[in-house]
């Protein structure tokens, strides 16, 4: 039986430098996009522990849900703010496990990956050049307008491009907690503090492994109707579990629902739920 831990797994997903850049077909690969706008396959790079008998690790599901759009590449010119999201894995027997992911960008140190991205850009620009080369009899009109192949390609190369001698390449990476209950706020704080410790110029008070060990093996699930306070890297983290007589745990801000859908749509959805209509939410 499950021992009642706060978290079952700590997972790292990202770029596997051994397999290199593989197109992510599941995300709807579009080769007309510039290489920096394409998506590539991500992999589960590590997980701790390897496996727990009460919650078998589903590598395919976790890998896909941690990074649903695959790997993303950026340069120093792009915004690289960390992004947080959550997901649920529902098994055939109806049991659920919860995932909380923080995706951030780190510098690519592999020269092979940087060279591969540069090669993709050379190929992309060459294909663009061929597709947009005007017919021979249009050369005069091109020279008069100045808006033909040479100018177009130079614009393309300046916009959303990568030059290995000039740019720094960054790739997305994800750290994730797999938990038996949906303590969203606490998990978000844990992951944000771990990320802060990795990116901070000053080392954390203790090795990072000790914090991960603590969250996996020493922090219990709070009993029903009780609160739990435990130490993060830079400060305390608190979560509360409702009692059996209270509403079920819902640790997500309702404010975001109104911001995303608007008041009228929320009221319409609530009305449909009360009338037992079938509701389908479609999202990117």
Automatic annotation (TrEMBL):
Pfam families (UniProt xref): DENN, uDENN
Keywords: Guanine-nucleotide releasing factor
Keyword Cell membrane: no
GO cellular component term, pick one: trans-Golgi network
Residues covered by the UDENN domain: 24-284
One Gene Ontology term of the molecular function aspect: small GTPase binding
One of the GO BP terms on file: retrograde transport, endosome to Golgi
InterPro entries recorded: cDENN_dom, DEN5A/B, DENN_C, Tripartite_DENN, uDENN_dom
The name this protein goes by in its record: DEN5A protein
Organism name: Formicarius rufipectus
Phylogenetic placement of the source organism: Eukaryota, Metazoa, Chordata, Craniata, Vertebrata
Annotated gene: Dennd5a_0
């Amino acid at each position: 039986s499950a021992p009642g831990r706060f978290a079952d797994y700590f997972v790292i997903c990202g770029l596997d430098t051994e397999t290199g850049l593989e197109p992510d077909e599941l995300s709807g690969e579009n080769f007309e996009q510039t290489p920096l706008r394409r998506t590539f396959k991500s992999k589960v790079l590590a997980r701790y522990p390897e496996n727990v008998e009460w919650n078998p690790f589903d590598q395919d599901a976790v890998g896909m849900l941690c990074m649903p759009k695959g790997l993303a590449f950026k340069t120093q010119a792009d915004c690289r703010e960390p992004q947080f999201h959550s997901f649920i894995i529902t098994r055939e027997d109806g049991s659920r496990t919860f995932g909380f992911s923080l995706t951030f960008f780190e510098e690519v140190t592999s020269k092979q990956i940087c060279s591969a991205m540069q090669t993709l850009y050379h190929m992309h620009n060459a294909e663009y050049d061929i597709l947009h080369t005007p017919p021979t009899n249009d050369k005069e009109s091109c020279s008069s307008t100045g808006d033909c192949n040479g100018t177009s390609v130079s614009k393309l190369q300046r916009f959303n491009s990568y030059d290995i001698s000039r740019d720094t390449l960054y790739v997305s990476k994800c750290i994730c907690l797999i938990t038996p209950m949906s303590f969203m706020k606490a998990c978000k704080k844990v992951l944000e503090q771990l990320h802060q410790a990795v990116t901070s110029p000053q080392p954390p008070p203790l090795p990072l492994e000790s914090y991960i060990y603590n969250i996996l093996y020493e922090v219990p699930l709070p009993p029903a109707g009780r609160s739990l306070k435990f130490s993060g890297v830079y400060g305390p983290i608190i979560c509360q579990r409702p009692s059996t007589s209270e509403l079920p745990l819902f640790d997500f801000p309702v404010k975001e629902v109104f911001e995303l859908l608007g008041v009228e749509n929320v009221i319409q959805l609530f009305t449909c739920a009360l009338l037992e209509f079938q509701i389908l939410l479609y999202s990117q």
